[in-house]
Design a protein that fits this description.
Length: about 325
């Protein structure tokens, strides 16, 4: 591993999993991600990464882009993996779907995990397939007991098959179900308690969803099971309006992180201390140097908090 991979900030990652029940036969892969900032690894940056070896904590890739046996993506990822920790992020398991999980998809995912031994695997609280039809979107679920039971069964199966603890990402949503009997935070708490999975806290998703539904983002953040956070995502959003003229935010991953999201992230660090943090950019992807600069802002915040903790001036605690 390079210095970029081995350099970690001080802190206690065990605090992120406190209170979550153990999962028999499942390892806690999330614990080995460095408490630094990382970025999504994009094909247009493969050569630059290998040529410059940037001082970055880790890279993240979408699992479904690598579910083939060979080709240039694997060629470059294999070389980059030699020098950096890897976070594997799924977008196609359809954890919230009504049907059973696609076992062939799960087999391909398990093979990918064996091949690259990522430090973390995560998926979304969403559904993206139904009755053999696949959708290019992450769709919301009702927060009710039947859905809760189904999501827990699916997560149990994923963790059993992969033999590791997964992280579940809180969603960005634009509609809500009248049939919901639980809040999103209540739903997530019960899922984590029953399955022992961790939380991938997407701070941008918190801000987007709360804005769209007229809720207070900071209050929602404090209601989430923050003790189980294993990784944080930061991303940009697009602004729009709904049919009534109210603000509508779209989780676009196509712009820099908004100042409001940076403010919420500061609250997370004050509460938890340093935590692995990914800067996401999936649309209008800029030059590698631009992504590294934005990740540097998160890295500076993590480092500053670690310094305050060492100096005994951190009031938040984990």
């Amino acid at each position: 591993m390079s210095n970029a991979a081995s350099h970690t900030l001080s802190g206690s990652v065990a605090a992120f999993g406190a209170g979550a029940p153990g999962v028999v036969g499942v390892s806690d892969g999330a614990a080995s991600l460095p408490w630094r900032a990382g970025i999504g690894l994009k094909p247009q940056h493969f050569r630059d990464v290998l040529a410059t070896r940037p001082d970055i904590g880790f890279f993240e890739v979408h699992a479904e882009n690598y579910m083939v046996d060979g080709g240039p993506f694997h060629h470059y990822l294999g070389r980059i993996r030699e020098h950096y920790p890897l976070s594997l992020h799924g977008v196609g398991l359809s954890i919230g779907g009504e049907g059973a999980l696609d076992e062939s998809h799960l087999d391909r995912l398990a093979a990918l995990v064996r091949r690259y031994e990522p430090a973390s695997f995560s998926e979304h609280l969403a559904w993206s397939s139904h009755g053999g039809t696949f959708f290019n979107d992450l769709l919301p679920v009702p927060y009710d007991r039947p859905t809760l039971d189904r999501v827990c069964r699916h997560i149990d199966r994923v963790q059993e098959r992969l033999r590791r603890r997964m992280l579940l990402e809180n969603p960005s949503t634009y509609v809500e179900f009248e049939s919901s009997t639980l809040s999103e935070t209540q739903f997530l708490r019960e899922v984590l308690q029953r399955t022992g999975c961790g939380l991938l806290l997407d701070v941008n998703n918190v801000y987007v969803s709360c804005t769209n539904h007229g809720r207070d983002a900071l209050a929602c953040l404090h209601e989430l099971p923050l003790a189980s956070v294993g990784e944080v995502h930061l991303a940009g959003f697009a602004r729009d309006q709904d049919a009534a003229g109210a603000p509508l935010l779209i989780d676009s991953h196509g712009s820099p992180v908004d100042d409001a999201v940076w403010g919420l992230y500061a609250q997370v660090i004050d509460r938890l201390g340093p935590v692995p943090t990914l800067l996401e950019r999936d649309n209008d992807v800029p030059a590698l140097s631009t992504l590294l600069a934005e990740a540097g802002r998160a890295e500076d915040m993590l480092t500053a908090h670690a310094e305050r903790r060492r100096c005994g001036t951190c009031w938040g605690g984990s």
